[in-house]
Amino acid sequence: MGALNSPTPTASWFRLDEASAVGAVRRFAVDLAGAVDLGERKRADLAIIATELASNLVKHADDGTLLVRPIRHDDSVGVEIVSIDSAPGMADLAAMYEDGRSTTGTLGIGLGAVARLADRMEGHSTPGRGSILTVQLWRAAVPPPAWADGLTRPLTGETVSGDCHAVRTIGERRQVMVCDGLGHGPLAAAAAQAAYHLFHTAPDAPPAVVVERLHRGMSHTRGAALTIAEIDSGAGVVRTCGMGNVTATVLTGDARRSMVSMPGIVGHGKAAVREFEHPFGPESLLVMHTDGVSEKWRLTADPGLITRPPLLIAAAILRDAGVRRDDACVLAARIRP
């Protein structure tokens, strides 16, 4: 599951610090729904969902941001909205889905309406830290929950990101990639686009073989740092191969293990390609991110978050550790959804 065909799809981040931003979110969401041909009824539903989520951020949240993006799973397409804020958070998020519940004296029907209209809705909230909500509308059949997902945010002032993430399943192989095109802006985005395409068209092969293919195929770009990981549930391991400063971490219980990435630039110079293997069980979580995200993030500050869907985890890490002076990308993955 992920963005439509590209690491830099038609997607947009919005800062919800004033009421006028609500209309911009609604218009963009409706236009995107038309672009992926959701149909008139779901376009109308998405307009309501976008308005409610954006209005909630304006009314209740600190540092509220909202992402609207296209999504794809196999042949099915849709639109996803990710709502992120830093405070005040809620002790009982599920109760806020009930009509009539409110923290500000309003009717409190917003999240209840969103939950009824959405094909899938997930949320997590921690008092004092903030809330994250993800909402999906699909054109046809709703796919199963994702085992891996992520977020990409461009440098402040840029319209495209030089970072990207990708997920693929080929046969028994479940592979993910996080890529950081050198620099930022259109040339970095072009390098990330090339990596994305080469990753998705690579043969069924281990991570080291795929990295070597990307190294050869990206020589016409400015190059990138990237890591590819493969989760092998049968063997109970994760295999990784990386070049440059993309961080990959495995969390299992209280243990946190960082994986090695070799120095170099994919697409340029001599390739130092090595594959590493680490234990990875049903309770393990893989987190990968570019250097637009600080390594100081900790999931323990949000009780229960580590058991939630990968996209909620990635959004929380981006909220807490993402930096605005660089493109940023976070991906989370586990054996089962």
Automatic annotation (TrEMBL):
SUPFAM superfamilies reported in the protein's UniProt record: ATPase domain of HSP90 chaperone/DNA topoisomerase II/histidine kinase, PP2C-like
Classification via Pfam families: HATPase_c_2, SpoIIE
Name of the protein in question: SpoIIE family protein phosphatase
Domain PPM-type phosphatase as annotated: residue spans: 134-335
InterPro entries listed in its UniProt record: HATPase_C_sf, HATPase_dom, PPM-type-like_dom_sf, PPM-type_phosphatase-like_dom, Ptase_RsbX
UniProt source species: Catellatospora aurea
